[in-house]
Amino acid sequence: MKVVEVRHPLVQHKLGLMRRGDNSTKTFRELASEVATLLTYEATADLETETVQVEGWAGPVAIERIKGRKITLVPILRAGLGMLPGVLELLPAAKVGVVGLQRDEATLGAVTYYEKLVGNMEDRIALILDPMLATGGTLIATVDMLKAAGATRIKGLFLVAAPEGLRAVEAVHPDLEIYTASIDERLDERGYILPGLGDAGDKIFGTRAG
Ligand SMILES: O=P(O)(O)OC[C@H]1O[C@H](OP(=O)(O)OP(=O)(O)O)[C@H](O)[C@@H]1O
Ligand SMILES: O=c1cc[nH]c(=O)[nH]1
Ligand SMILES: [Mg+2]
C-alpha cells in the first residue's frame, strides 16, 4: 500500500499547532481545513494532464489541463466534514459523496449509518476525507462501500494515522493510497491515537471540552 507522510514544513507546523490541548473550536477547525488543502496538493500530484490549444491574448497557445478521470470527494461523517472546505479550495468542481460511520467506543467496530455516493464511481478517483485513521475499521468499511459502488482508484487523506490502522488497512485493501500529515506512535487502550489530536469530531464540532 502506498503511504505518503507529507513532511512539508507548512504541514508539520500546522499539525503541531493542532496538537495543542488548548485550541478553540475555531482554531482547530481552521487548521484542519488548511492541512487538508496541503494534503490535497500532494495527493493530486500524479493526476494526468493533456495538452490542448486555446486562443490566448497573442494567438494560439498550448495549455495543460487535467485529463480523464474526475475526482469525487468522500468525507466520512462527522469529522471528515472538517476537511471538506480545505479540499474544495483546490477542487471546487468536485462532486461530493457522503458516508456516515461511527466507531462503537466499546467494541471499536465501525457502524455505518449513511451512504450517498455520486454516480459513475468506476470513472472517478475517490478521495476519502477523515482526520483520523486509528484502528482502521472505519476506513476498511468505507473502502468496501466505495468498491461495491464500482470505484477502482481510491485515495485517503488523513491528518493523523496510527501504525496499527495502516497495517490493518493494508492487509485488506493494499491497492489504497494514503496521504497523511503524520504517522503517529501508537493507539492507547481506548483506541485513541498517541500523541494524536484527541477526539477530532468533538474538536471540529465543539461538542465536548478538550
Ligand atoms: O480507525 P477507527 O478506529 O475506525 O477510528 C477512526 C474514526 O473515528 C473517528 O470518528 P468517530 O467514530 O469518532 O465519529 P465522528 O466523526 O462522528 O466523531 C474518526 O473521525 C474516524 O472516522
Ligand atoms: O485518536 C482518535 C481515534 C479515533 N477518533 C478520534 O477522533 N481520535
Ligand atoms: Mg468522534
Walkthrough of the structure:
α1 (9-18) packs antiparallel against α2 (25-43) and α2 packs across α3. The chain has one domain (2-205): Rossmann fold. The chain has helices spanning 9-18, 25-43, 84-90, 137-148, 163-172, 200-205, and strands spanning 2-5, 49-56, 59-66, 70-77, 95-96, 98-103, 110-116, 124-129, 132-133, 153-161, 177-183, 186-187, 193-194. It is α/β, with parallel strands linked by helices. The model has no long low-confidence stretch (mean pLDDT 97). The chain has six helices and 13 strands. β12 (186-187) and β13 form a beta hairpin. Residues 79, 199, 201-202 line the site of magnesium ion.
Mean pLDDT, to the nearest integer, reads: 97
Uncertain parts: none
How much of the sequence is in beta strands? 25-35%
- In total, how many beta strands? 13
> In which range does the helix fraction lie?
25-40%
What is the highest CATH level, the class?
Alpha Beta
Bound molecules: 1-O-pyrophosphono-5-O-phosphono-alpha-D-ribofuranose, uracil, magnesium ion
Give the oligomeric state of the chains in this entry, treating copies of one chain as homo and distinct chains as hetero: single chain
CATH architect. name: 3-Layer(aba) Sandwich
The biggest beta sheet reads:
9 strands, mixed
Spatial shape: globular
Between the first and last Cα atoms, what is the distance in angstroms? 34 Å
Stated plainly, the CATH topology is called Rossmann fold
- How many helix segments? 6
Structural class: alpha/beta
Count of domains = 1
Q: What Rg is obtained from the alpha carbons, in whole angstroms?
A: 18 Å
Order of helices and strands: EHHEEEHEEEEEHEHEEEH
